[in-house]
Design a protein that fits this description.
Blueprint lengths: L1 E3 L5 H8 L9 H14 L2 E7 L5 E11 L10 E10 L8 H15 L5 E3 L6 H6 L15
Helix pairs in contact: 1-2
The protein binds coenzyme A (COA).
Length: 143
């Protein structure tokens, strides 16, 4: 069953963000951040749970206070993050449903522009949802 993510799901969302055990030390910081962001409405998430409560899939959306841009007077953009499905439950449409729910929830709040960073295995899914590579974006990480 697909449902909205709650602050109580924060540690699960951190697992979806950092599924590799090598990144386990990153999870507590993200758990604390996402719990607060959910409470403040700065993060929207949807998860699919089994009847016994175990979460098997999820997707999230970080609400970016980007500022108005040409043709888009409302200030928010959405960054799709934390898309993950348990290995035993893949290719059943769970990730697609969770991403679509995030997009719809953000759209109801007025957002219409979204971005994400993809993995090779997720690219076809995102492209089938309409995401396309953008040409002009540059990045920088200062030490
Ligand atoms: C990428 C990932 C999230 C996809 O999760 P998923 O729940 O299997 O995704 P979906 O089932 O919604 O869609 C995946 C594919 O299954 C296909 N599919 C959906 N329902 C299906 C069904 N009933 N039968 C067969 N295939 C189906 C979809 O068309 C899609 O195909 P495509 O990849 O060729 O486009 C998952 O593989 C994963 O967690 N990977 C590791 C983490 C990761 O890379 N996350 C992305 C971060 S950007």
């Amino acid at each position: 069953m697909l449902r909205a993510a709650l602050p109580a799901d924060a540690s699960t969302l951190a697992l979806h963000r950092f599924p590799a055990e090598a990144d386990a030390n990153e999870r507590p910081t993200y758990t604390a951040w996402v719990e607060t962001a959910l409470k403040q409405g700065k993060y929207l998430g949807f998860v699919t749970g089994l009847e016994r409560g175990e979460v098997i899939s999820g997707a999230g959306l970080t609400v970016l206070d980007w500022g108005p841009t040409r043709g888009d007077p409302q200030p928010f953009r959405g960054r799709i993050v934390n898309v993950w499905t348990h290995l035993d439950h893949r290719r059943q449409g769970h990730a697609r449903a969770a991403v679509l729910a995030c997009l719809a929830a953000a759209q109801r709040r007025g957002s219409s522009r979204f971005s994400l960073g993809t993995t090779p295995e997720a690219r076809a899914l995102y492209e089938s949802l309409g995401f396309r590579a953008g040409g002009a974006e540059l990045g920088l990480t200062l030490e």
